[in-house]
Amino acid sequence: MPSGGSTRGHRIFAALYDRLASVGERAGMAEIRAELIGEASGRTLEIGAGTGLNLPHYTEAVTELLVTEPDPFMASRLRKRLAADPPRPARVRVVEAPAEELPFEDESFETVVSTLVLCSVEAPDRAVAEIARVLGPAGRLLCVEHVRSPDSPGLARWQDRLERPWGWFAGGCHPNRDTVAELEAAGLGTQGLVRDGLPKAPPLVRPLVRGAASRSR
Asked: pLDDT tens for residues 41-84?
C-alpha cells in the first residue's frame, strides 16, 4: 500500500514494496488494476502512486498523467520505472505531494485514481476532500481500497484489534476504514462502487471496495 499521506520516507518499505505487493497481485489485484486503470481518460491524477504498479495499465485515452507520491524513496523508484518503461500517455509528471495537500487547481482533472491509498493516508477525510476539490464537474474517482468488513462482525473485530500492528508491517495501512462513508461525506456519489474481496488475500485485507465515485454536487 503506497504511503499516500505521509512526508516521512520509508527506505526499507520502498525497497521491499514490489515484493510485498506481489502477494496481492497474485491474489487478484493485478486483474483489478488492469480493469480499473483502463477506464481512466482525459487529464488524470493518480494519488499515492508508490513505485508505479499502475503505470502499464493507462491507455491513450489519458491525455495527461500526473502522479503524486510523498515518500521520496517511493518517488525515486517511481521515476526509475517511468524512465525504464514509459506508459502510453505522452505527458507524464511526478509530483512529490501528499494526498491531503494536492498542489492543483480546483476542478482540474477528469479522472483521479487511488489504489490502496485511502487505507494508508494519515487523514482520509482531508484526502477525500482534496480529491473532490480537484475533480471536474463530470469527473470520476477510480479506486480500489481495503475496507472494514461490512458483513462479518468477527472479521471486523479482528481488523480493529490488529489495525496498529498491521500498519507497522504494511506501511501505515488501516484495514478497518469506512472509505465509502468518507467519500459520501465529501459529496461524492458512490453508486458506481461495489463491495468485493480477494479470496486468496490475507483475511485482514480481503474486503475491498472498488469502482467509480463521481461528483454529486
From this structure: 999 999 999 999 999 999 999 999 999 999 889 899 999 988 88
The b/e string for 141-151 (b: 16+ C-beta within 10 A; e otherwise) is bbbbbbbbbee
Domains and CATH numbers, the chain: 11-215 (3.40.50.150)
Calpha distance 165→181 (Å, rounded):
24
* H runs (alpha helix) in the chain: 11-24, 30-37, 72-84, 124-134, 153-161, 163-169, 179-185
pLDDT in tens, 149-196: 999 999 999 999 999 999 888 878 999 999 999 999 999 999 999 999
Segment 34-37 long-range contacts (CB within 8 Å, at least 24 positions apart) = 36/113, 36/115, 36/142, 36/143, 36/144, 36/210, 36/211, 37/113, 37/115, 37/142
